[in-house]
Write a structure and sequence with these properties.
The chain is an alpha+beta fold. It contains 11 helices and 12 strands. Helix 3 packs antiparallel against helix 4, helix 5 packs across helix 6 and helix 8 runs parallel beside helix 11. It is globular, with a radius of gyration of 24 Å.
């Protein structure tokens, strides 16, 4: 993990004032001080900004104390991958390390201390984006500030699930292509925000979703998918059109079709690509061109999904169509 986000270096410095100013620009204004004499900073900051999420990694190379101004516009998820940090809130002190992450909410007054060897991953989560996702996902307005319990334990089942998701997302942010595509970036961000709302303790009520979504609403969702199948869609787009919360949309698809709406959408797109490959036989179109046209940006995953659904690689479909075309021309 020591190489995560290495392509997104923002800062490497020993100058305390410069470090404080630069980190303030990425996160928020704060006081930064060395906790012991005879120390010097060896700060390294890496950061990749998305739409609602920013993925970062930060180490100071010294024991430091941080006193931020209360967040106004974002949440901060912090995951030490080496060393530890202490979070001091009015309700007490919380120790955070590789087995226990922290999630800080807007308007909280707190301070932090980092051990000398501390190296942490963090996700900056836009408050506006998370609150909007809460409203759409649950189909209700949040009451006051959405606030999470500050500690996430990775030795518990829900924490383990979140840790696996974070590992994948940080690796993708570091080396992958999904955050380059607006539609796939939206899916990545919605997935993490949904996981936070479903897995973690917070101060908001959860709507009772035992009522099934009406079949007519699910039909509207399917019709919308079919009409916009090549466009960048996320679950919240589909739910809004169908007049459902995102959570109800998922529940309705599971009950009626035994799969999620995004799996259903992927299947529609794969069928569209297959038909396009058959029609393109003998032409100049490539598998890559057609896959991209139908909304697939990760070509390796696309090929694997295509083979799982149709029993052959997309290149084999294109070649087979070309052979059939030549055979037909020969017989004519």
């Amino acid at each position: 993990m020591s190489t995560l986000l290495q392509h997104y270096a923002q800062l490497q410095s020993q100058d305390l004032r410069y470090v404080r100013e630069h980190v303030s620009e990425v996160l928020c204004p704060h006081r930064l001080s060395l906790a012991g004499g005879g120390q010097s900073l060896e700060t390294a900051l890496f950061y990749r900004q998305g739409d609602s999420l920013g993925f970062g990694r930060l180490s100071y190379g010294a024991q430091v104390t941080i006193e931020p101004e209360p967040f106004q516009n974002f949440y901060l998820l912090q995951v030490p991958i080496r060393g530890k940090e202490e979070i001091h809130l009015h309700q007490g002190m919380y120790a955070s390390n590789a087995q226990a992450a922290s999630l800080l909410s807007p308007n909280q007054v707190f301070s932090m201390s980092h051990s000398e060897e501390a190296d942490k991953l963090f996700v900056r989560i836009a408050r506006q984006g998370l609150e909007a996702h809460y409203r759409q996902y649950f189909g209700q307005t949040h009451r006051g500030v959405l606030e999470f319990f500050p500690i996430i334990r990775f030795d518990e089942p829900k924490g383990q699930t979140l840790w696996r998701l974070l590992c994948w997302q940080f690796n993708e942010a570091s080396e992958g292509l999904m955050l380059d595509s607006p539609s796939m970036r939206a899916c990545v961000e919605e997935t993490l925000m949904t996981a936070l709302l479903e897995l973690l303790a917070h101060n908001q009520p959860l709507r009772d979703e035992r009522r099934q979504a009406a079949p007519a609403a699910i039909r509207r969702a399917i019709e919308y998918m079919e009409a916009h199948v090549t466009e960048p869609l996320v679950a919240s787009d589909i739910a809004k059109y169908a007049g459902l919360s995102t959570r109800s949309l998922y529940a309705g698809f599971r009950a009626g079709l035994g799969q999620t709406p995004m799996v259903y959408l992927k299947s529609l797109r794969l069928k569209g690509v297959r038909q396009a490959l058959l029609e393109a036989a003998g032409g100049s179109a490539s598998v890559t061109d057609l896959a991209m046209a139908w909304g697939f940006g990760h070509l390796g995953q696309f090929a694997a999904d295509y083979r799982a659904q149709f029993g052959e690689l997309p290149s084999q479909t294109l070649q087979g169509g070309a052979r059939r075309l030549r055979s037909g021309a020969t017989h004519n």
